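[09:14] KT: can someone run the structure on this one? pasting the chain below
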Amino acid sequence: MPTTDASSAAFQHTLGKPASLAGVALHTGAQVKLTLRPAAAGSGLKFKRVDLPDEPEIAAKIENVKTVERATTIGEGHVKVHTVEHVLSALVGLGVDNALIEMDANEPPIGDGSAQPFAELVARCGVVAQADAPRAIFEVREPVHIETKNGSLLTIVPDERFRISCTQVGPGGRFTQFHSLEITPETFRKEIAPARTFTFYEDIEPLLEKGLIKGGSLENAVVIRGDAVLSKEPLRFPEEFARHKILDIVGDLALFGRRIKGHVIAVKPGHGANAELTRALAKQHAQTAALAPAAPVPVAQTALDINEVMRLLPHRYPFLLVDRVVAFEGDNKCSAVKQVSINEPFFQGHFPGYPVMPGVLQVEAMAQVASLLILRQEGNAGRMGFFMSADGVKFRKPVVPGDTLFIHAELQKTRRNIAKANCHCTVNGAVVSEGELVLSLLNR
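[09:31] RB: done, structure tokens below
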């Protein structure tokens, strides 16, 4: 598998080709086939349920987390995927930013209880850089601390690298272990991926009563009974349990959707505490992004008022859906605003008594903002951006009169007269719609 060197670490990575594995799911006991596939830059990690009609996809994002009991479950609507942490850990730990995870059941195969089978699958696929797409990195600037009722303590502090220090504490202090390391593709593959899941004997019966671990056995888990370790093989590391907890932390933090520069210090971690830390990081990132662009740019380039917007765009009432550009981040990102008023003409018929902004107009607003970004680039003055297609469009929450709609666009590719952009709209910091848009540049 190619190694991610310093020169390529700044770019997003995906898989070189598809590869599959099959096995038994831990909690459902069902047979499942899992296939990893390459994905476009900016698409992130997504699960696809090929066993269901229309083959729905679920983005691996913290807002999609449904339950965190003994495993992490994500879902959208009635569609769910259970126990996602091991496969996500392998992908992120080995440097993959964008991938599609296809499954013909609702839970990945458990393998030997570690991330090793998924790490080997990633190696079969290969990892390749997407050199036209910068990697999204979040630098922790202020400490974040999480403490739960069951005694979990998680803190993340600023660091130039991604590091995890973990203390695992069993009932009554049994098998207390500590391990600390920087997470890189090399250290993850050798020191974290092989660490197996474990359980204490007294927890097995309650799990069975809840209908869980139907596929569990000594083939895919280490069982601790008293002071004895029950396993088909000796412990792979003296502190294998602490290493597996680090594996879980990597997988759960993958739901943040960004690479992290920070040091996680964890005591008695679990999926619930991991999810809380991920939500806290997402909140900190949203607050930071709302205050200022990630990189400073000259004042003259930081905003466009309505007159400058109309100079670039040919749209006019009632189809101009951008009031102002509030920030540019370099040459490939910008954020704009649309104040949604009850006086919008479309509210007369959409819908009387329950006014909601049509989703297609949110997509059109994204296209207009993407066009503004493209038309400001050298050589594009006087041209027009024609909206050609949209992929992965999702509408998550209704937009109503009184909302301030923030429209964000990020250019992914520009080749000749075709440009692709990842876009999303937010209200009060929550994503209300998103999609990947393709535009064609033509002369006026």
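[09:33] KT: thanks! The helical segments are 85-93, 116-125, 185-192, 201-209, 240-253, 271-291, 306-312, 359-375.
[09:34] RB: yep, looked fine to me
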